[in-house]
């Protein structure tokens, strides 16, 4: 018989769940773990050692050993599995118990589940977690949303296990309902953009300049020592040094060029489009992954769509400096698009998200952590209602100082025939956002001509329709 009452329970003892359980226990909290897979239960029991951890394959036992009101966290695949776990838990729970979904659930699913559960007296939170296996074990970035009283119940645990930057935990209450899952979704959208930008720089250096894996590693290592310092830059540098144990070759060259995805980038683009918020870098990154998945078609097309392209003939050192500047500007633009989406979503969905807090909790633990986030945090601290980071006095000047680099790199990519959709999208967004006039007046005239959709005028208020002259 188990007499100990445990402070928090974890459903799902896969890599993320098991490591988070160990993290929580290391910070002095007692944890009960549950999984239907006995091997995962046994693995946690082995790793638990002297920690205050209880692991079981019995859901009834798992719930019974939790102190009341219960706190139960789920780290299971999004979708039907989440609903199945909730269904199985419900007969065992009581009023004021708290369920936390710490997976990558779609924010609309989180809202629906929250509404259903609150009617039955159960509190529900959606919490984004970023940092992967290492973050879960030693300190992730946590993005909680839901009832504020529920957050206060788990705040001591969250602040203890989260990553720390200058002694400040990378966690903050983000807002009601699905605010936490929405912020995590946009985090992943930004992640898509940044990863694609780095991949495009790789392509330009590999196929454009002919750099070796060792040379590529040096470039990314050097960049990581500058204003481009970021977790993604750091891991990119060591990826090019990794040797495959079976063949002795560099592992990167044995990895199939088809990028996987779990849907969060696409969800980011979809909701941005629903709210009419332009996020072209994120959109282009999603499309680039979709294009990469057409491996067999691309292989055929490579033989049929042969064209004459140029070779790089310039100063390699000078171009690498320009490429660094282009990536810097594009990273800022990518963050700007994601933060602009969060700002609009906060109003549309009623989250009341503090963007300074978002930048702060992304500084450590998460996949998109970067030195740049310090500047983002400062921008939102100075102007809490800043609609776009490109309107910040400091960041706007940084992008302006790098825009010629971005133009040069995009021009060379086009000349060399290399696909650089996110670099192109970054430049197009910059030029579009800074334009006081855009050719959308022609689109409005066309819409009115073929569909009588009306238009507005610059010299009079109201809407107008014209019977445009037809030849």
Give a structural overview.
The protein has 471 residues and is of the alpha/beta class. The chain has two domains: 170 residues, Rossmann fold (3-Layer(aba) Sandwich); 250 residues, N-(1-d-carboxylethyl)-l-norvaline Dehydrogenase, domain 2. The protein has 19 helices and eleven strands. The strands form three sheets. A seven-stranded mixed sheet has the order 3-2-1-4-5-6-7, sandwiched between helices. It has a two-stranded antiparallel sheet with strand order 8-9. Strands 10-11 form a two-stranded antiparallel ribbon. Strand 2, helix 2 and strand 3 form a beta-alpha-beta unit. Helix 14 packs across helix 18. 46% of the residues are buried. The mean pLDDT is 95.
- The structural domain count equals 2
Unreliable sequence segments = none
Strands ordered across the widest β-sheet: 3-2-1-4-5-6-7
Gyration radius, to the nearest Å?
Answer: 25 Å
CATH class assignment of the largest domain: Mainly Alpha
The share of residues in helices is 40-55%
Attribute tags:
single chain; 471 residues; alpha/beta; Rossmann fold; N-(1-d-carboxylethyl)-l-norvaline Dehydrogenase, domain 2; 2 domains; two-stranded antiparallel ribbon
Topology:
Elements: E1 8-11, H1 15-26, E2 31-34, H2 38-48, E3 53-56, H3 59-64, E4 71-74, H4 80-89, E5 98-101, H5 107-118, E6 123-130, H6 132-138, E7 141-145, H7 148-161, E8 164-165, E9 168-169, H8 179-208, H9 213-223, H10 231-239, H11 264-274, H12 280-292, H13 295-304, H14 316-348, H15 355-361, H16 372-382, H17 393-416, H18 421-433, H19 440-451, E10 455-456, E11 463-464
């Amino acid at each position: 018989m188990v007499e100990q009452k445990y402070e928090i329970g974890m459903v799902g003892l896969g890599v993320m769940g098991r490591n988070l359980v160990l993290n929580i226990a290391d910070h002095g909290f007692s944890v009960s773990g549950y999984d239907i897979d006995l091997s995962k239960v046994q693995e946690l029991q082995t790793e638990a050692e002297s920690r205050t951890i209880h692991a079981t394959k019995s859901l009834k036992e798992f719930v019974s050993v939790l102190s009341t009101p219960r706190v139960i966290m789920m780290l299971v695949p999004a979708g039907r599995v989440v609903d199945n776990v909730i269904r199985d838990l419900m007969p065992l729970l009581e009023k004021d118990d708290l369920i936390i979904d710490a997976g990558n659930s779609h924010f609309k699913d989180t809202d629906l589940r929250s509404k259903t559960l609150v009617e039955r007296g159960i509190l529900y939170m959606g919490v984004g977690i970023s940092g992967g296996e290492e973050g879960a074990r030693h300190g992730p970035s946590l993005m909680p949303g839901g009832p504020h009283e529920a957050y206060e119940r788990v705040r001591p645990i969250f602040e203890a296990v989260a990553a720390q930057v200058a002694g400040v935990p990378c966690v903050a209450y983000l807002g009601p309902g699905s605010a936490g899952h929405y912020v995590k979704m946009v985090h992943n959208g930004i992640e898509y953009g940044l990863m694609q930008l780095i991949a495009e720089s790789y392509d330009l250096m590999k196929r454009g300049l002919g750099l070796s894996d060792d040379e590529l590693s040096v470039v990314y290592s050097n960049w990581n020592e500058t204003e481009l310092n970021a977790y993604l830059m750091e891991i990119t540098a060591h990826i090019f040094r990794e040797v495959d144990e079976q063949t002795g070759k560099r592992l990167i060259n044995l990895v199939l060029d088809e990028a996987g995805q779990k849907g969060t980038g696409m969800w980011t683009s979809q909701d941005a489009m629903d709210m009419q918020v332009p996020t072209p870098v994120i959109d282009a990154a999603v499309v680039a992954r979709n294009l990469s998945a057409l491996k067999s078609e691309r292989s055929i097309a490579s033989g049929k769509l042969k064209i004459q392209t140029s070779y790089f003939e310039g100063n390699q050192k000078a171009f690498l400096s320009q490429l660094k500047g282009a990536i810097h500007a594009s990273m800022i633009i990518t963050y700007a698009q994601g933060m602009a989406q969060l700002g609009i979503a906060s109003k549309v969905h009623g989250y009341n998200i503090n963007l300074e807090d978002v930048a702060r909790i992304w500084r450590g633990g998460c996949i998109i952590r970067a030195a740049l986030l310090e500047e983002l945090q400062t921008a939102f601290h100075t102007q809490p209602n800043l609609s776009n980071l490109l309107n910040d006095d400091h960041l706007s000047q940084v992008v302006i100082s790098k825009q010629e680099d971005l133009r040069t790199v995009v021009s060379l990519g086009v000349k060399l025939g290399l696909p650089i959709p996110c670099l192109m999208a970054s430049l197009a967004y910059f030029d579009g956002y800074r334009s006081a006039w855009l050719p959308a007046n022609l689109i409005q005239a066309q819409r009115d001509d073929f569909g009588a959709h009306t238009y507005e005028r610059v010299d009079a208020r109201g809407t107008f329709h014209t019977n445009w002259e037809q030849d």
